[in-house]
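ok trying again, last paste got cut off:
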Amino acid sequence: MNQDGSITYLNWSRAAFIYLHEINSRITNVTVLRLKGKNFWVMVYFYLFLSLYVLFSNNVRIFIMKNMIAKSVLSGLMTSLLFACNEKKEEQPASTIDKDLIKREIQAKEDSFAAVYNSGQVRNIGYYADDAISFFQNRPPLIGRDSIVSFLKNDIHSNADEISFKTNEVFVSNDGNLVVEIGAFLVIDSLDVPINRGNYMSVFEKRNGKYVAVRDMSASDGSIAR
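nice, full thing came through this time. structure:
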């Protein structure tokens, strides 16, 4: 038998000879006498044919089994490849985030906030989320939109200055649901003279299709000398 399990022609011949010799050794003298001439050789050829048939059948079965295993492996590989191709087709292309558009949207929110603040009547402008936290200088954080709005109302009544905001940079998450804004503010008095400026950072989250501020903080550069 070869390493791959097959039987060569030489091995068939040897096996047939051994098998025939074994049969011949078991035939009694009486049987030999009864099978003289052609009858004896007919029996010999019959056993030889039978031996070769059995050996050949075993080799064929081995060959068929190997082909079945190979076909099964090939079929499995083809099935895996088809599934992989289908998964790639089903993958949706990543959506493109338009940062310029988002930056304009955030700037519009800042303009709206400044307009409400400068009007002297703070109302619900849709800028802060209900759970927003705002960090002002020299005071504890303001937790919740109601606390922030209350602070802004007191600040408005105490001065007649106006404020403006400019969005300098936006950092947008891959899905566009989170935006970090870096901007600058400027405060002017009733004569349009700058009296204060500084920088701020705000974190926006998209909720119900709109951006709302969930965290913000600011830092003043100091009062501007008049």
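cool. The CA atoms of residues 69 and 75 lie 10 Å apart. Strands lie at 128-135, 142-143, 162-172, 178-188, 194-207, 210-223.
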